[in-house]
Amino acid sequence: MRLGNAIEVNHVTKCFKVYLDKGRTLKEKILFQNRRKYEKRTVLNDISFCVKRGEAVGLIGQNGCGKSTTLKLLTRIMYPDSGTIEMDGRVSSLIELGAGFHPDMSGRQNIYINASIFGLTRKEIDARLNDIIAFSELEEFIDNPVRTYSSGMYMRLAFSVAINVDADILLIDEILAVGDANFQSKCFQKMFELKKRGITIVLVSHDLQSIEKICDRSIWIDGGEIREEGLPFHVNNKYLKYMERKSDKDSSEESFYTKPNALTIDSKLESWGNKKVYFKEVYLRNYHGNSSENDIINSESELVIELVLGVNINVEKCMIGIGINYNMGNMIFGTNTDLEQVQVPNIRDFKKVLFCIPHIHLIEGDYSLHASITDGKTDIYDWYPIIKTFHINNEQKFVGTVFLTHNWKFE
């Protein structure tokens, strides 16, 4: 294993036998041999990648491409048909949250059971018990049987156990949407804390904004092969563009809406979506409505991002997303109306979205703004990876924070 690497995946292939109608008993296997016919499917085909110690890597791709299979191979839940996987350090996996929980035992008892699965001793669990309970926010329910828990409470307890194992490598599969908005925010804070401590993270998710926030690198898996890897901002955009083209082929309705002529948005900027609702204009202003001169903004001043919408057809639901990238690449801030549980009016009742930041505490440099409007699920109305660029002027060289205080307005 190379010095500095935490994970090395070398030429790994994994196939599965998919039986059409497999006989279950010995009698069925003898009398109905036709039922033993199967189709061999290659889920991963000769993939190779490395993850450096302390690096966070996101695995992206459409359903069935092999992301979760890769993670299960890393956890040794299953083994490759060919190739090798080497890992250096204690591994904690957040793949099946709550695996090993006993419904009739209390939350406290299940903490001991679940943590022991991760390899902790009784003494180590005792030392972490209060932190696990406090993080889960289940103090008053911790001695109740977990069968009385809601699904959200169940997942919060399992997540709290998994992230308090003090592992060297953390493997995560689509579980960051745990609990309510406040708890999700706390989970993200914990992920940033683990990353800062040098924990190696491999994250599988369809939430590309989460990957851009947490990960240093994205690996796009398509049809069991690695199609692209690099900075999350660039790889994720290529993946979304590919999915849009694929969707256009499958849907005649999608291709009906053409990109409208942008007014203040540069027509050369890359965007995608079916344009049922689209971004027509974008401005950077202050609270008094005055535009920023040459898109130069002083740090610690107020900023209003004004997005003017155009509508080709009324839609039932809109989710609006805003993101800020530093130096045209790394995402430093991102949010959306669903994550914050902001009630978006019917599209017929507003035409402007105002994203108001009282103090834009950012270091001096060049930034880009990306914006999206979707139905919150699979329907992308309009999405710009870069819709506006601006410069932060910081005379005091204030370092600041990327967790920007803000509020939404609709006019």
In words, what does this structure look like?
This protein has 411 residues and is of the alpha/beta class. The protein folds into two domains: 5-230, 3-Layer(aba) Sandwich (Rossmann fold), CATH 3.40.50.300; 261-410, abc- transporter (atp binding component) like domain (Coagulation Factor XIII, Chain A, domain 1). Helices cover 23% and strands 33% of the residues. It has eight helices and 18 strands. The chain has helices at residues 26-31, 67-74, 107-117, 122-136, 151-162, 181-196, 208-214, 232-250, and strands at 5-19, 38-52, 56-60, 82-87, 91-94, 169-173, 200-204, 217-222, 225-230, 277-285, 296-298, 303-311, 319-326, 330-336, 352-357, 365-374, 380-393, 407-410. The protein has a six-stranded mixed sheet, sandwiched between helices. A five-stranded mixed sheet has the order 11-17-16-13-14. It is globular and about 80 Å long. The chain starts with a strand and ends with a strand. Mean pLDDT is 81; it is low at 251-263.
